[in-house]
Amino acid sequence: MTAAPAARSPTPAGTSGEQRRSGRTVARWLFALSVAGIIYGSLYPFDFAWRAPDWAEAVAALTDAGVGWSRGNVVANVLLFLPYGLFAALAWGGGRPTALGLVVIVASGVLLAVALQVLQLWLPLRVPALADAGINGIGLLAGIAIARWPWPRALVERAVVRRPLLILPLLLMSCWFAYKWAPFVPTLDVHEIVQGLKPLLAEPRLEALVLARGLVGWLVFALLWRDCGLGTRWLWFVMPGAELLQVGIAHNPVALDSLLAGVLAPFVAWWLQRAVAEPAPVVLLLLIALLIVHGLAPFTWGASPFHWLPFTGFLTGSMAVNLLSLLLKAYLYGGLVWLVYRTTARPWAALVIPVVIVGLIEVAQTRIAGRVAEITDPLLCVLVWSVLRLAQAGGGRGRRGGSRQSSMA
Question: Which of 115, 133, 160 is a domain's end point?
């Protein structure tokens, strides 16, 4: 409990310049992530059919005024480019870019939007329309307008300078939400919503491993949430709400086991808070057990090769399925790194223990039929640990053990 006052202490004199520079650095990283998200959302599912286009037909498709004006499409396209304008304005101008900077941000954003619409000409499942690029421009301008308010800039700067270690929990929670809400395509179509509820109402199915994965995942999320200083009472709404929100996302049905995990998790977290003095070691053990069972199921013995090329398992098959697998692994392995660090307060333990555990699971998979044993999973642990070390370096050596305090207090 000794770290809390340090987190509330005022920023030392002379650090305002450092605070602004650090805030802009983080804003640039967030800008890069937003660009990656825009490209993903615009070109998903990446099933390009390269062919020589009929340019007359292409121009007619792009300029069709009747395409792109449904309510769901307008909302999605505005939200898609809003982070672009917000983080660009924060990164290159501190929220108030110069006239030249404003022109560069708007022009680059519009060019990106138009280029993505043109690329959609080679995506059979997408409907390209320049109207979408225009709506993207509205979202971009809205993001720039929001950046002029003082609170977005202050939030980024304070998170970096005063609580830099929160960067990793925030990224991990984003991975968990992304895993739950992929493919990130909101819908208000009644037919889509009915289809999303069908597995829950018409074909309910309960799988023990999926239930355990969801429950442990949400328990890790509860620790991350509280480490960020967010209100604990909100967890009672966030956990089940995140599961139910899948109804409004296309091609993302609500499953009984996942929903049940979201409903049960707040009660289990509440019980742990009162049953043990420090819940983190308990959740850590549950997470290790889950990783072992999840990695070795269905325990069908047989020989499988070990792949030394990173991301071998993500190079084939469905891109959508591979993305979900990557998000889940990044979250679970990241949670493992974070919980080891919280429990031991030793940065090197947060590297060695996860790499050894995950590495042994991968080696064991060479004796499990149908599993892809590869070097990727230990490397993911190393990557997450690298983010932790960078955040720790940003916070100064004196704060090394600050996050060890109980997040359930």
Answer: 160
Interatomic CA distance for residues 168 and 164, integer angstroms: 9
Cβ-based burial of 337 (10 A; exposed 0-12, middle 13-18, buried ≥19): buried
pTM of the model: 0.64
Is residue 409 included in any domain, yes or no? no
Q: Dig out the tokens for 318 from the structure.
A: 């469905």
Q: Which of 165, 73, 63, 45 is nearest to 114 (CA)?
A: 63
Tokens of 38: 């825009």
Phi, psi values for residue 123, rounded to 5°: -110, 105
78 and 57 together in one domain: yes
Q: pLDDT tens for residues 377-395?
A: 899 999 889 888 877 765 5
Strand runs labelled E in 7-148: none
Per residue in 105-152, pLDDT (tens digit) is 999 999 999 898 888 888 776 777 777 888 888 989 988 888 887 766
Tokens in use for 401? 């053990």
Question: Could you say which DSSP state residue 248 is in?
Answer: G
Residue type, position 268, single letter: V
- Domain total in the chain: 2
Distance in angstroms (rounded) separating the CA atoms of residues 87 and 146: 10
Contact 332, 283 (CB under 8 A): no
